[in-house]
TrEMBL record:
One Pfam family this sequence matches: TctC
Species classification: Bacteria, Pseudomonadati, Pseudomonadota, Betaproteobacteria, Burkholderiales
Organism: Allopusillimonas soli
Name of this chain's protein: Tripartite tricarboxylate transporter substrate binding protein
Gene3D superfamilies the record matches: Bordetella uptake gene, domain 1, Periplasmic binding protein-like II
Similarity comment: Belongs to the UPF0065 (bug) family.
Highest taxon listed in the record's lineage: Bacteria
Keywords on record: Signal
Signal peptide start and end residues: 1-21
InterPro entries membership: BUG, Bug_dom1
């Protein structure tokens, strides 16, 4: 069957017009975005590390986008309640998630009944910051460094406990990695967020904790907890006198760094995702934001949506290997 040149030309023109119209429509949505206030979901309780970083970011991001941004805390289930809320929101870019590594890279290796897929249901916008965790103890304990902690745990088995912001969270993974590598057993006590997890170390209900600088700082400044190590391979700028855990001879291979990243609902138009990314990159380049984040122990680390998608996937593989090697399981 022969197709006339006029019909073929008309078909090609029609396809071109449709594609052009779709592009114009997408651009129009991007130009109009955001037409309503934005909700930034923090999947942990107020006062914790994710919450503090989220509020710093929201203020600057609001300026860059020219829109109101409301921070909404939705804690519980190791961050999965808040993450699920965003995963099932309307894909219009008006509902954002500031996630830690737990709910988007760790939990899939621990939970079989997650009602969202980080890869399929969340659209990556940008990595926001890398956050080493501080290992801090109650100051009443005779422990001033990680070596003394290991020795105390071996001499007094089953007497120490550590808190985290949830089962399967990065702090939990870090605690179990310490147990495994040091050959000790320190009981895990999970909370719904790092704020109460750190507060109970200060109050003596729990022996120690792994928490971000943001969550730890007020208690360190008041002398209510004692930082003895950091999970990165070098000291944090905000806590230069706290050595890496890996400086302890029996833990020379210890290294695990948390991170926070910005997501929205999958299916959000790419033009809006790109606009959010550009605004986030600008916000994280603001000297005041950089200073505020670094004072909380967070290093700004923006990247493109695709680079962040690749980063999340690589980190998920890493955490999965640690979980298998350390035999970590949800009981």
């Amino acid at each position: 069957m022969k197709i006339s040149s006029n019909l073929l030309a008309s078909t090609i023109l029609g396809i071109g017009l449709i594609a052009s119209a779709a592009t114009v429509h997408a651009d129009a949505r991007s130009d109009q975005y955001p037409a309503s206030p934005i909700t930034l979901v923090v999947p942990f309780s107020a006062g914790g590390g994710v919450d503090v970083v989220g509020r710093i970011l929201a203020k600057s991001l609001s300026t860059e986008l020219g829109a109101s941004i409301v921070v909404e805390n939705k804690p519980g289930a190791s961050g999965m309640i808040g993450a699920s809320y965003v995963a099932h929101a309307k894909p219009d870019g008006l509902t954002l998630l500031l996630a830690s590594s737990g709910e988007v890279a760790i939990n899939p290796h621990l939970y079989k009944d997650m009602n969202y897929s980080p890869e399929k249901d969340l659209a990556p916008i940008s990595l926001v910051s890398r956050i080493p965790n501080l290992l801090s103890v109650n100051p009443q304990l005779p422990i001033k460094n990680v070596g003394e902690l290991v020795a105390y745990a071996k001499a007094h088995p089953d007497t120490l406990s550590y808190s985290s912001s949830g089962v399967g969270n990065i702090q939990n993974i870090t605690g179990e990695l310490l147990n495994s590598m040091a050959g000790i057993h320190i009981l895990h006590v999970p909370y719904k967020g790092s704020a109460q997890a750190v507060a109970d170390v200060a109050g003596g209900q729990v022996s120690m904790t792994f928490a971000s600088g943001a969550a730890s700082l007020p208690f360190i400044e008041s002398g209510k907890i004692r930082p003895i190590g950091v999970t990165s391979d070098k000291p944090m700028k905000a806590f230069p006198d706290v050595p890496p855990i890996k400086d302890t001879p029996e833990l020379k291979d210890f290294l695990l760094v948390n991170w926070f990243g910005l997501f929205t609902t999958a299916g959000t138009p790419d033009s809006i995702v790109q606009k959010l990314n550009a605004a986030t990159v600008k916000a994280l380049a603001n000297p005041e934001v950089v200073k505020a984040l670094e004072s909380q122990g967070a290093d700004p680390a923006p990247m493109s949506p695709q680079a962040f998608a690749d980063f999340r996937a690589d980190q998920s593989k890493l955490f999965g290997q640690i979980i298998r090697d350390a035999h970590i399981a949800i009981k």
